[in-house]
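Technical note accompanying the year-one report. For the benefit of new consortium partners, we illustrate the data format agreed upon in the data management plan: each record pairs a sequence with a structure-token string. No post-processing was applied to the example shown here.
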Amino acid sequence: MDKHYLTPLFSPKSIVVFAGCNADSAPANSQAELLIENFKSGGFSGPLTYLDIGMSGTLSDLVKSRVDLAIIALPNEQLCAALEVAGSIHCKSAIIISRGVNASEAKKMQDISKTYGMYLLGPNCMGFQRPAQHLNASTLGRMTQKGATALVSQSGAVTNSILDWASSNGVGFSAVVSLGDHSVIDIAQVLDFLAEDAATHSIVVYLENIKNARSFMSALRAAAVSKPVIIMKTGRSQVSAEATATHAGAMVASDEVFDAALKRAGAVRVQTFVQLFAAVKCLSARYLPVGARLAIISNGGGPAMMAADWVKELKLKIGKLSIEATADLLPKLSNLASVTDMIDLDESADAHHYSSAVNACLASSKIDGILVLMSPKPHLDINGISQALADLQPTISKPLITCWMGDDQVASGRSILNNASIPTFRTPEAAVDAFHNIASFHQNQQLLHQVPSSLSELAKPDIEGARILIENILAERRKVLTEMESKALLSSFHIPVTRTILARSANEAILVANQLGYPVALKIDSSDIVHKSEVRGVALNIHNATGVRDTWLDMMATVSRLKPEAKINGVTVQNMSGKPDGRELYIGVRTDAQFGPVISFGAGGTMIELIADRALELPPLNQFLAHRLIERVRSAETLGTWRGAPETDRESLERILLRVSEMVCALPQLREIDINPLILDANGALVVDARIVIEQTVPAHNYEHLAILPYPSDQETEWPMRDGNRYKIRPLHPHDAEMLQTLVRNLSPESRYFRFISSMRELPERMLARFTLIDYDREMAMVAMYPERTANPEGGFTVNEKIIAVSRYVTNPDKSSCEFSLLVADEFNGQGLGSRMMLSIIDVARSKGLTSIEGLVLAKNAGMLKLMRSLDFKIQIYEEDPDLKLCVRSL
């Protein structure tokens, strides 16, 4: 069932319009007038009917026709009635173009659409445009040009501004969708549709808010698997007003979390409207993701240096020609040209010089993109140079971005470039920014492809012990753990901590210090004190009992004076870290209102807020993500050999980050974690101080507190074959792509046709990505892994695993049913593998709360239909195609 459920909305074959009494009468209001004008000028050629909400005579005929889309543009008091009529005549989808509908009225419309099973865009939206289908169902003005970039916006004003700009810059769109503040169909569902829309090659989103972080991340990851996605979100200055009890809670703003989420989803965020326009320009030229090496070609040194400075600022790289390519290019340029870091063609450069330089860069494997700069000079043939680049455009395989500086003299040249779909900008910085967006997408794809296990492969943590500790603290109606409790929780996940014992008197402190051995550190213990150093509640390197006694007495007196309302439990005594060459680091966790837990890492110590050196990542982590998280902070430079201190043990730091990720995955009660400082040296890492905040939560199932669902490693099982061999069933992983491709290549033509209803010999790259980079929240794919033994020439055997079967389901939009598919290697047919694979996904679907599973099978695929009957599926006629059978089973 490949047709997307929103196809009737965005690609309707038939439409009814509610905008007045009938097609010949006056529109109901100004919005209806504009809608009808735009709709008629669009040229939609399918069946079209104009209806009035009071009409009844034609309803019986319309019920039989099952219209795809109802467009409603009426006064607000008539919207619910019109939606009822649309539901009564079995419209599959509806769009309500309106303004000023409040939340309660919007809820009524949502209920009506649910009752009739309609997909509703609106209310309070301005509609959508589909230029290739000549469909302008909007009040957004005249139809935009046809293109390959989709625009989705939660602001009608922003949408109109972009369309106005696009009309004069040669930019077209595959779809333009304006979402209102109460739209039933949200941004995630639109992204879902565009991810599968063949006419859409890239997506630009203007975002103001999201309803559900997990569904948004799921849809965004699905879209970004194969299409560049650029997002601009407002509200960057907003910070949480919630009171916090740790550094993580105080320092990490919601906007930073959103940034981290977008990177993890494989999308790119731009910060300004100018950058958004730049992104649209580049994406309209269908530039694919590339590396970060940008070649700069110019007819003057000044502009080239301006571009180079911005390249450095954005952490890109200057793309340079090889020695051989340079030697080949120089004879084709002016005698005054310079080809070193940048290609300066000199002010006498002509069209031939520009073409030669661009061709040299296109042929170089050391260059990922090309920036061509031109500043106007007397007698310079600007149009000739522009036309030379336009002539090259059909053969260009790398991003080619231009910057024609100036205004009047270069205006006609810019028009030539726009008509050739070559992005052109007015300033070097804007042009470099545009390339940075493309390069960032390439970098973020690496994060998208990471699917971490729910737990690392290290020793198993004592999760049950951790839960008991948390339950006991919550039973005492406390949320902030003491230092000892925090360290105990960390220890249950095998995170190394300093030995810490609470002393309630000076004498107790001396006894503890004598037992631990000197030197020791003393710290005030109070859940009411967030930062101990601010009240002089930390003392280090105490070498004898007298020092312990005097420090204990002074500390208690000072803290009581500076923080008289604080409840003081005593003073903790602990060994000094014993790491004189150690680097002070910080690991924190903050729970964001939308995206759930987020892990932060950076420089630690008492000046942590002032230094502000941190990077963020959403859990769950794997080693690649942990490594990238460390590399992104400035203090990573100190982890190597640093000012006489030996190189640190980074692997131990990565393990602790993985352990923290385990904690936030396994314990939804965690709200904030503050590990500061964590001391790292050549011999490993040690947590010196920690503070954890918890909160009572409802029982979480399927990691509901996380925005990204972990790899479900608990679904792995092993089964015997009828021939005595064994195979393992486990969830599909992204690194299985090549094995999955091999399975498809080795199928018989008949098996490939039965599975894909196609004669293709292998999976196209986009389909392979879609099948392997799955979202475990909305779908599941199980693979059967078979150990294949190959004899070695010198004796013995090599064992290599291969995929011999795949079963999967995808959750339907109703969130209660799912669609299945099954594929078994030809040589393993008849061994009960199909039954076992189907039962494995049925079990997973049932555990997710789904109530039914269905799928389409070719009517002549007798073997598959027999299997379906044996598994209690009901075989039904599929009305839309007599060559297919619909197989349905209740869960």
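Partners are asked to follow this layout when depositing records. The domain at 713-890 is CATH 3.40.630.30 (Aminopeptidase).
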